[in-house]
Write a sequence for this structure.
């Protein structure tokens, strides 16, 4: 949670996450650049720079694939949620590895020429239609620029500055970036590759990302397709039995218009807030009540049930909703109160 | 706090119940899976000098030249500067090297003025398969000695050949790999800088895997062929033998 911005608000989980991530990258590069070459016929070993290009490029693709798989995996199985936490560090590392690939290319393929390297990079490819296929270098450059923008705006300062909705929209550019990377490899290296390993990696990675997103999309659609039933007094909606919500947990309902609403129970108190976390629009309804506060499953941001406010010194606020108990049933007014508006919880008997 | 199912809070000191083992398995998958992938991809990376560069059956096996080399031979022009070493017992047709400067520059070779003259050139020899190049940063020194007649061009007829246009320097070992579409930009820059162009054929032509590339008139193939560099293309044109090399005078498709 953020009372003020710091370069990195380190936690034990972040340190372990980053340690595993960096160790995995270093082990990959070591295996590719060193151990893998010892297993080859010495006559077939590539030059160091060309080898580094392939190592950094393939590593960046794998990291990008993992980053894109974490989201749908977390939707399909909640145990993957810890991998979603701190995913921005994975994104920044991915950009740095991709940048290393680009620098290797610039310092090898585009160097040693009277033409400046950046000019050469932008002028050596045939125009579209002048040769079979498509120019693959601009695709890689475009993907790298997108990754740079995403890495540069990954800090919570930008999240607050741009607002979560705009920030999320901006970071959806990871999908066109991934498509550009796949095209960069497909129209480049794969055109003259004789070994199927890279084709299997790229094709398999793209299929995995697509398949997981379809599966998660179907699951989410099934969960979200039911609109809450109207109560006998408009605009109130029927939530269901008041004791159906487990203690310490939440449930969500979809109103006829607008975003989903999360309803939480803490002991005998029941309150309703927006389902969108103020931090990154995380699904609050899948969270828990911890220490009397609704706790987001994505990054642990917390809010009080009675007014949707983060406890001091934090300043985030959620829209609250009015609830009432009618017999054994809970009714909800789908019109949101301004963020941070106190609403007395419904008290269960 | 007790939860009926695993719940993770990033700022908590420990992962929630039931998550520890799962996260340990995930970490192990990353720490074992990534190096395994690196090992497979690194170990299976394409051979940068595959069969296309192999010396053809029946071709003369070239003896190693000294490194650095101080060579004396006949300077030839068109379509690219060539240094022809006189015939000897091991090389009955003589031995012809492409010439290039340092980096991606053709080099200080005024072949128009020195064509057919004996010269001394110092440099570094690149060789892969049957293709050889002398890389030199200094102009050749004209020698005051009688020069033999330049080797006559022997026409081998018209051919339709499939292969790849690339630069002779990277293909001869300046880079590994020095061919392929991923290397296209580098090859294009080399050829823009007047590094000799070659054509790597998919099938040997008269015992040669690699031919020196010229345009239909026998001149430099760039810029006319620039957009075709690095791609598999099929070109048609006359092939001629000059001493121990073949020159492919290709027509634009």
């Amino acid at each position: 949670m953020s009372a003020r911005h710091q370069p990195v608000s380190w936690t034990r989980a972040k340190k372990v996450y980053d340690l595993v991530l960096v160790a995995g990258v270093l082990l990959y590069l070591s295996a590719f650049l060193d151990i893998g070459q010892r297993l080859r016929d010495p006559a077939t070993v590539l030059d160091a720079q060309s080898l580094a290009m392939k190592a950094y490029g393939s590593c960046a693709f794998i990291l990008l694939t993992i980053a894109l798989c974490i989201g749908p995996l977390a939707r399909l199985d909640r145990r993957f949620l810890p991998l979603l936490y701190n995913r921005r560090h994975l994104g920044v590392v991915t950009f740095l590895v991709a940048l290393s690939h680009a620098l290797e290319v610039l310092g090898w393929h585009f160097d040693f020429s009277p033409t400046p390297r950046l000019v050469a990079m932008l002028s050596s490819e045939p125009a579209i239609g002048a040769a079979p296929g498509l120019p693959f270098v601009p695709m890689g450059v475009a993907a790298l620029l997108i990754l740079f923008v995403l890495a540069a705006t990954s800090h919570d300062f930008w999240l607050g500055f741009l607002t979560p909705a705009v920030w999320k929209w901006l970071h959806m550019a990871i999908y066109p970036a991934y498509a550009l990377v796949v095209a960069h490899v497909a129209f480049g290296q794969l055109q003259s590759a004789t070994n199927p390993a890279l084709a299997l990696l790229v094709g398999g990675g793209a299929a995995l990302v697509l398949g997981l997103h379809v599966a998660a999309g179907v699951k989410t659609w099934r969960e979200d397709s039911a609109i809450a039933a109207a109560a006998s007094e408009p605009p109130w909606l029927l939530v269901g039995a008041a004791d159906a919500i487990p203690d310490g947990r939440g449930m969500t309902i979809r109103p006829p218009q607008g975003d989903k609403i999360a309803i939480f129970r803490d002991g005998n108190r029941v309150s309703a807030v927006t389902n969108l976390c103020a931090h990154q629009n995380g699904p609050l309804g899948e969270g828990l009540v911890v220490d009397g506060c609704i706790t987001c499953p994505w990054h642990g941001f917390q809010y009080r049930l009675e007014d949707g406010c983060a406890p001091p010194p934090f300043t985030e606020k959620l829209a609250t909703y009015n609830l009432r108990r009618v017999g054994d049933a809970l009714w909800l007014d789908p019109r949101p109160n301004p963020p941070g508006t106190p609403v007395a919880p419904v008290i269960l008997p | 706090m007790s939860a009926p199912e695993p719940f993770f809070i990033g700022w908590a000191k420990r992962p929630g119940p039931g998550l520890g083992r799962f996260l340990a398995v995930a970490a192990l998958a990353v720490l074992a899976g990534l190096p395994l992938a690196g090992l497979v991809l690194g170990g299976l990376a394409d051979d940068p000098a595959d069969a296309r560069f192999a010396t053809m059956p029946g071709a003369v096996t070239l003896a190693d030249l000294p490194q650095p080399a101080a060579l004396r031979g006949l300077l030839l022009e068109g379509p690219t500067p060539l240094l022809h070493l006189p015939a000897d017992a091991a090389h009955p047709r003589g031995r012809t090297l492409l010439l290039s400067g340092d980096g991606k520059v053709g080099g200080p070779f005024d072949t128009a003025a020195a064509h057919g003259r004996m010269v001394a050139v110092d440099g570094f020899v690149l060789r892969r398969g049957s293709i050889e190049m002398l890389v030199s940063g200094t102009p050749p020194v004209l020698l005051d000695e009688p020069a033999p007649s330049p080797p006559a061009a022997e026409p081998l007829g018209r051919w339709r050949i499939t292969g790849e246009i690339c630069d002779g320097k990277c293909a001869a070992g300046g880079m590994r790999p020095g061919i392929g579409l991923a290397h296209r930009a580098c090859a294009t820059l080399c050829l823009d800088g007047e590094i000799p162009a070659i054509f790597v054929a998919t099938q040997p032509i008269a015992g040669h895997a690699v031919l020196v590339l010229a345009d239909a008139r026998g001149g430099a193939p760039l810029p006319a062929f620039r957009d075709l560099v690095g791609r598999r293309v099929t070109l048609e044109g006359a092939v001629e033998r000059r001493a121990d090399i073949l020159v492919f005078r290709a027509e634009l498709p």
